[in-house]
Amino acid sequence: MTFVKRILPFLSVYILLLMPHPACGITLQEGEMNLATLFQRMADYQDDREKGILADTISLRMGELLQLPGSFEYPFDRLNRMGKITSPGRNIRIYTWNVPWTDGTTTCFGYLQYKPENKKINLVKLTDRSADMPEPGESILSPDNWYGMLVYDIVEMKHDNKIYYTLLGYDNQDLFRSCKMTDVLYFNEHSEPVFGKPIFHYQKKYACRILFRYSAKVQMSLKWNEKLKMIVFDHLVPANSSYTGQYHYYGPDLSFDALRFENGIWEWVENVDVRNSRE
């Protein structure tokens, strides 16, 4: 009996692997329901090895599903454990989700659909390599070397006839630290997606992306303010000056800073008055 109990979780995983998937000719609706089942199993599992198997399966099935006609417009409403965000110009759509591990860290997964000038929808997989990036703020990255995050908003700006998609995202870094961030997505001369560009002028430095690290016990606001035409965020400070640089002691001090897009650069604006401009 003990042996049976021990192998049942693994049997259930492999049974799920045999479920029909888009390559077998199922519809978007059927594929969505299958994925919803996989996400539910992911939430139920506690063992990292089981989660790893399911994580790879979900990523594979999602990639197959996004190759089906109509997937760009399909709402995927049943997949409430996955973020789906479309740019204001409806040229790109980003799907992101994460897998929490027993040590408190997470791995992000994602896909990017985009329509370049030829109007054909392209699909690329996003592979989270954030664990291997000691200086993420300085790196220009590709989809297979992505700094993973759960993208919850896209701010679309244009400069010199080039569109920059500024991404606002979130990530649980460990049991004690959370992180919100800004990144930028654009397309090179070959219509290939690129992440990161030193257009964030923040705290007297230029960065390819900004990471705001803070205590997992508190909340931080980072969002586009349509009335101010700026990305507004909580100013973070340590609980005590002796904790400077120890981000699990950081939190909002009830003041706000912002980023304003000027001449192709996101310029840092300190002490923004957000009264009467709440979204």
Question: What would the keywords be for this entry?
Answer:
five-stranded antiparallel beta sheet; single chain; 279 residues; six-stranded mixed beta sheet; alpha+beta; 3 helices; disordered N terminus
Describe this structure in words.
The protein is an alpha+beta fold. The chain has a domain at 131-279. It is built from three helices and 15 strands. It has helices at 2-17, 28-44, 48-65; strands at residues 83-86, 92-100, 106-114, 122-127, 150-159, 162-172, 177-187, 193-195, 200-202, 205-207, 210-215, 222-225, 230-238, 250-262, 265-269. The strands form three sheets. A six-stranded mixed sheet has the order 10-9-15-14-13-12, with no helix packed on it. Strands 5, 6, 7, 8 and 11 form a five-stranded antiparallel sheet that branches. Strands 1-2-3-4 form a four-stranded antiparallel sheet, covered by helices on one side. Strand 3 (106-114) and strand 4 form a beta hairpin. Helix 1 packs parallel to helix 3 (48-65) and helix 2 runs antiparallel to helix 3 (48-65). It is globular, with a radius of gyration of 20 Å. The N and C termini lie far apart (57 Å).
